[in-house]
From TrEMBL, chain A:
Alphabetic keyword roster: Copper, Metal-binding
Organism: Mariniflexile fucanivorans
Pfam families: nos_propeller (PF18764)
Subcellular location: Cell envelope
GO MF term list: copper ion binding
Family annotation (PROSITE patterns): COX2 (PS00078), PROKAR_LIPOPROTEIN (PS51257)
Principal place of residence: other
InterPro entries: Copper_CuA, Cupredoxin, N2O_reductase_N, Nitrous_oxide_Rdtase_Sec-dep, Nos_propeller, NosZ/Cyto_c_oxidase_sub2, WD40/YVTN_repeat-like_dom_sf
The keyword Metal-binding appears for this protein: yes
GO cellular component, one term: cell envelope
Record-given protein name: Nitrous-oxide reductase
From TrEMBL, chain B:
Gene3D superfamilies to which the protein is assigned, alphabetical: FAS1 domain
GO CC entries: extracellular matrix; extracellular space
Residues of the FAS1 domain: 55-186
Source taxonomy: Bacteria, Pseudomonadati, Bacteroidota, Flavobacteriia, Flavobacteriales
Domain of life the protein comes from: Bacteria
Protein name: Putative surface protein with fasciclin (FAS1) repeats
Record-linked InterPro entries: Adhesion/Biosynth-related, FAS1_dom_sf, FAS1_domain
One GO MF term: cell adhesion molecule binding
Classification via PANTHER family: FI19380P1 (PTHR10900:SF77), PERIOSTIN-RELATED (PTHR10900)
One of the protein's GO biological processes: cell adhesion
């Protein structure tokens, strides 16, 4: 009995010990974790405070996320065909992907940047570069659709792009690979001294955003890696990191790492603009596509442009200088005041920071250290503001919080390091998971960053999520940077390979978001805005179907008289005038994609019937209670058939 | 028997409380943001992922070698594990235990002291190049830029390649680069 009593006490105490232990544990972690959870929790039906536009890298597109939740809202097709909505497949959008090389269904999209007014994000458009076939795209932040793509001639590996000057005067695109300009048949080993690197200044029409290449600066044959605009006091200048100043044409990992220092090229674009406005530069023959989407006609057109203005920097004194920067700098970032230009030598353990004021002084006092092809090289010591000593391994990119702090990513040591501008002291470091590339602070490339959140975009995921085979989506980490120390608050997967992202407080753009297209304003040449407009017209082998869609039928939905060998164009107008009621259109055996047609819009899908029979089509977007009834048939007869075209809806 | 039982329960309770304390500490460390390097930073990261499927990385190769126990101890003392498992590519010049032993007496012991962590890290990073080159390929170089921001010379004598004066005596390809085993510790300037 006594034993049992003691035993019971023992068990009781053990139970208490367990319980209190568990309590403590859950209490501790519960409280602390829930404060992180609260920071990222967006309750059902609530909205995120920020939009993040994350580049899709090899997806060629741009994804839209919410912060702090890390939820993905949309993938905007830009440079890649997108069967999900028919972008690049429909007749209206195919011209967007035309280039001087013909139709290209894909690209590698890199660095998004939001338009600015007076150095602040204005949220009108976002620009992004296609890296492989050099192009710049402009996406509307009203419709969230790609509105314009301009090809960049004389460029190859369009990497130091697409960054915006502080009044969106220009979107700037620098070439990574130098190439013969103009292109010609020549020996590769004659690269040095003969290849050129084109830095393109593309003007942006302040009203419509339309892009036009104002001039290209033909620089020495270095690799131009990244760039950023001056701002505030340095507005009017643009800065580009360079590597391979050795001008090697083979085994760059050895031969482009010989010089202890490469350069940051400082371009006084205002000076060159003035030179060009006074007739300076040379018009050279070129061939590049300019593709514009017109919201009124719902149609894109592609125009080939035949010349471009080029400028030899040696002919514009005082416009271009080279700032020596250690060891193949990658990131080139300018702080919100415009004073500091950070060059991250990816093979250097230190960060180099140049001073804009000292640069102007060095120019004024001609503190030169020779020249490269006639471009003055400034003395390193005379432009250096300071350096951050050994903050980590493999520095890549820097963003700013607007409170005097900078945040730099380190690829090899997998971390973000926070350091102070001016004193160059390291304030904090936090690991990333794993091997971080870019990072983003909302407004990070502007005079006024919104320094509440920072997110790191990592190249390697490994064990961060449930495994999904050898290929994983990349991981991003969101940090709260409102305090002295960065605080990791969320992991979220990203789509494709994000190279940079642009983020913006939601209130700047969310109220501008378009809900529908007005049917009354539809100027598509083959629209059908009522049942009376629907028809089927034969033009030789081409059959044009003027069709409407509304909950829950197509009109017409029975079509006869189509023959094998015809080419059928379904011009389909969505008659809905109700937010978020798109209809889809899919035709059996169509060799392209579906269409997703938003309210008030007209889209065209082409179908080449190859087999005799009666073939159905249907709506792919669950639109209504009678969605499954939204369907129709096309009768396809033999090529030599005499059956006349006929069509109808609801006729017995 | 009675006493034994009591004793057992006491032990049990002590163990439970002790575990409890440990749990508590671990829990506290994770969300703490007051120190630049928290304990969790040391134990998290790519170095600690279990992965039996991939080719071993440079760290795993060093850990698996009985001739490199001093190097591995040094890497751990300097908290450089994560830097060695990165995508890199990384070329590690791995001095053998014998090479470390050849240093003046007391050098290694001294470097392994916590207060000399930075000096140790500097020496170790002087043995790492961002790159992945075979011994033959290294003959194309005159020098290599090392992770500690200094450079080392590359010299070719006959078939032998010397890095900062240390001879490459064997090479092991890794999942994220290559390990060249060298016969000397390469000291930074």
């Amino acid at each position: 009995m006594k034993n049992i009593f003691k035993l019971s006490i023992g068990f009781l105490m053990a139970a208490v010990a367990f319980t209190s232990c568990n309590d403590q544990k859950s209490g501790q972690s519960g409280a602390l974790r829930s404060s992180n959870a609260e920071k990222v929790y967006v309750a059902p039906g609530e909205h995120d405070s920020h939009y993040a536009f994350i580049s899709g890298g090899y997806s060629g597109n741009l994804t839209v996320y919410g912060l702090p939740s890390g939820r993905m809202f949309k993938e905007i097709p830009v440079f890649s065909q997108f069967p999900t909505n028919g972008y690049g497949y429909s007749e209206e959008t195919k011209p967007m992907l035309e280039t001087s090389y013909g139709f290209i269904p894909w690209d590698d999209s890199h660095h998004p940047d939001i338009s600015q007014t007076n150095g602040k994000l204005d949220g009108r458009w976002i620009f992004i570069n296609g890296n492989n076939t050099p192009r710049i795209a402009r996406i509307s932040l009203t419709s969230f659709e790609t509105e314009e793509i301009i090809e960049v001639p004389n460029s190859a590996g369009n990497h130091s792009s697409s960054f915006i000057t502080e009044n969106t005067e220009y979107v700037v695109a620098g070439t990574r690979f130098s190439v013969p300009i103009p292109q010609r048949d020549m020996a590769i080993k004659e690269y040095k001294g003969n290849f050129k690197g084109a830095l393109s200044f593309i003007s942006v029409d302040p009203e419509h955003g339309h892009m036009d290449i104002k001039f290209q600066v033909l620089m020495p044959g270095f690799n131009y890696d990244l760039s950023h605009p001056g701002r505030g006091k340095s507005h009017g200048w643009f800065f580009f990191t360079t590597y391979n100043t050795e001008e090697a044409n083979t085994l760059l990992e050895v031969n482009a790492s010989q010089n202890d220092k490469d350069f940051i090229a400082a371009i006084n674009w205002k000076k060159i603009e003035e030179y060009v406005n006074n007739g300076g530069g040379t018009m050279m023959p070129a061939n590049y596509a300019h593709n514009v989407y017109d919201e009124a006609t719902h149609n894109a057109t592609s125009t080939m442009k035949k010349e471009v203005r080029v400028v030899n920097p040696a002919e514009v004194p005082g416009a271009v200088y080279l700032l020596p920067t250690p060891k193949s700098p990658h990131g080139c970032d300018v702080d919100p005041t415009g004073e500091y230009i950070v060059g991250n030598g990816k093979l250097s353990a230190n960060l180099t920071v140049h001073s804009f004021t000292k640069m102007l002084d060095a120019i004024e006092n001609k503190k030169f250290d020779g020249d490269a092809y006639g471009i003055p090289i400034l003395k390193f010591e005379d432009v250096l503001a300071g350096s951050v000593e050994q903050p980590g391994l493999g520095p890549l990119h820097t963003e700013f919080d607007g409170k005097g702090n900078a945040y730099t990513t380190f690829f090899i040591s997998s971390e973000v390091v926070k350091w102070k501008l001016g004193t160059w002291e390291v304030i904090d470091r936090k690991p990333t998971y794993y091997s971080v590339g870019h990072l983003t602070i909302p407004g990070g490339n502007s005079r006024e960053p919104f320094g509440k959140y920072m997110f790191a975009m990592n190249k390697i995921t490994k064990d961060r999520y449930l495994p999904t085979g050898p290929e994983m989506e990349h991981s991003a980490q969101l940090y709260d940077i409102s305090g002295d120390k960065m605080e990791l608050i969320l992991d979220f997967p990203t789509h494709g390979e994000p190279h940079y992202a642009a983020a913006i407080p939601a209130e700047i753009i969310k109220n501008n978001s378009r809900k529908i297209y007005r049917l009354a304003e539809n100027q598509h040449a083959k629209k059908a805005t009522s049942d009376a407009d629907t028809k089927v017209v034969r033009d030789g082998k081409n059959v044009h179907v003027y069709m409407t869609m509304i909950r829950s039928h197509f009109s017409p939905d029975n079509i006869e008289g189509v023959k094998v060998g015809d080419k059928v164009f379904f011009h389909i107008t969505n008659l809905e005038q109700d937010f978020d009621v798109p209809h889809g259109f899919a035709m059996i055996g169509a060799n392209n994609a579906e269409l997703l047609v938003t309210p008030g819009q007209t889209r065209t899908l082409t179908w080449e019937p190859k087999q005799v029979g009666v073939w159905p089509f249907y709506c792919t977007d669950f639109c209504s209670a009678l969605h499954q009834e939204m369907q129709g048939y096309v009768r396809v007869s033999p090529a030599n058939s005499n059956i006349e075209l006929s069509w109808g809806l609801g006729e017995e | 028997m009675k006493t034994n039982l009591n004793y057992l329960f006491t032990v049990l309770l002590v163990v439970l409380f002790f575990n409890c304390k440990n749990n508590k500490e671990q829990q506290q460390v994770e969300p703490s943001n007051t120190t630049v390097e928290t304990a969790t930073d040391k134990r998290q990261g790519q170095a600690f992922i279990e992965d039996d499927g991939s080719a071993p990385n440079v760290l795993q190769i060093a850990i698996g070698s009985k001739d490199h126990t001093t190097l591995v101890a040094a890497v751990q003392a300097a908290n450089l594990e994560n830097a060695l498992v990165n995508a890199g590519p990384l070329m590690v010049f791995a001095p053998t235990n014998e090479a470390f032993a050849a240093l003046p007496e007391g050098t290694v012991e001294n470097l392994l002291k916590p207060e000399n962590k930075d000096a140790l890290a500097n020496i170790l990073k002087h043995h790492v190049t961002p790159g992945n080159y075979s011994k033959d390929f290294l003959k194309k170089f005159k020098k290599l830029g090392q992770a500690n921001n200094q450079s080392v010379t590359v010299e070719v004598k006959g078939d032998d390649v010397f890095i900062g004066g240390a001879k490459i005596i064997a090479s092991v390809p890794a999942g994220n680069g290559i390990v060249h085993i060298v016969d000397k510790v390469i000291l930074p300037n």
